[in-house]
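The methods section describes the discrete structure representation at length, but only in general terms. The central task, working out the structure tokens from the amino acid sequence alone, is never made concrete. Nothing conveys this as quickly as seeing an actual entry. For illustration, here is how one protein appears when written out as sequence plus structure tokens:
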Amino acid sequence: MSERQDQNKALVRRIYEDMWNKGSLSAAVEIFAHPEGVQKFMGEFLKAFPDLQHTVEELIAEDDRVAARFSAKGTHTGPWKQYPPTGNPIHYTGITVAHIEGGIIVEHHTWWDTLEVIEQIS
């Protein structure tokens, strides 16, 4: 694996370790070319699930792309969308694919089962 691929994987890992697990939304400025939407979404989600913890299960790098498979656990203690707090535990898995240029994520897509989370808090 090249040094660049290792650096790209480390950058994507920061999404989960720094932003999600440590709640450092300001780290988005160092990670994403366009951090505003990421910060907004994560801020709202962490208000609803403040103890949320992500685990990176797998990272795969090829050229300027990194795929991350992750899992997450937390507790629904704040409102999310139209759902009032339930105190219910949640668990979900997902995948993020990030395109990296110049040491920053310029495009990314994340897939996770929101219906699974809704069922756990309903």
About this structure: The two ends are 44 Å apart (CA to CA). The longest strand covers residues 89-101.
